[in-house]
Amino acid sequence: MFKRFYFQEVTKRLIELKKFIQVITGPRQFGKTTLIRQVLDETDIPSTE
């Protein structure tokens, strides 16, 4: 599957020791949901999907 442009950056920020809220914004049909699903599939972060 094609990895979104910001995949590495979002993954890096989510696994940092310091925990901050990460906000993903952008226009409709930009791939925000796809990006988050890809990141959650690659990490051990639980989701309530």
Distance between the termini: 20 Å
Given the C-alpha coordinates, what overall shape results? globular
- Total number of helices: 2
How much helical structure, as a percent, in the residues? 25-40%
What is the H/E string?
HH
Number of domains: 1
User: Radius of gyration, Cα only, in angstroms?
Assistant: 11 Å
Structural class determined from secondary elements = mainly alpha
Word description of this protein:
With 49 residues, the chain is an all-alpha fold. It has one domain. Helices cover 39% and strands 0% of the residues. It has two helices and no strands. It is globular, with a radius of gyration of 11 Å. The two termini are 20 Å apart. The relative contact order is 0.23.
Short description:
The chain has helices at 7-14, 32-42. The protein has 49 residues and is mostly helical.
Keywords:
mainly alpha
Give the secondary structure arrangement, pairings included.
Layout: H1 7-14, H2 32-42
